[in-house]
Write a structure and sequence with these properties.
Layout (H helix, E strand, L loop, with lengths): L2 H18 L1 H4 L17 H41 L4 H28 L1
Helix pairs in contact: 3-4
């Protein structure tokens, strides 16, 4: 028997032992966490608190999409600068307007979550 076949058979035996022994191979899953504003005194309040967390997550995704959109537009303007279609002041204007848009978006999401 060659060393290669011995190594191969030992590897398959180890994999078989690990697969058949769930105590060694299994990990404990974490429990469900309460919403950020607490569980509440009733099931309705708990569902409202989970809804608050959901709207916060949606707002986070919207702000992330805004940042990607501003960065994509700025990259396009930068590309146009090297082709001679736009000037550096256009990139500066894009940066200023983009920062203002992101700031307004953060402000609006913060105010909207206060309403909930």
């Amino acid at each position: 028997m060659s060393i290669r076949t011995i190594t191969k058979s030992l590897t398959s035996a180890a994999a078989l032992i690990m697969g058949l022994n769930p105590i060694i191979a299994a990990a404990a899953l974490p429990g469900a966490q309460a919403p950020t504003r607490g569980e509440g005194t009733s099931w309705l309040q708990t569902i409202q608190n989970y809804g608050y967390d959901g709207f916060m997550l949606i707002g986070l995704f919207l702000l992330g999409a805004m940042m990607v959109g501003v960065a994509s537009h700025a990259y396009g303007v930068y590309h146009d600068i090297h082709e001679g279609k736009k000037k550096w002041r256009d990139l500066g204007l894009t940066a200023v307007v983009g920062i203002c848009l992101i700031g307004v978006g953060i402000f609006m999401v913060t105010k909207a979550t206060g309403v909930l």
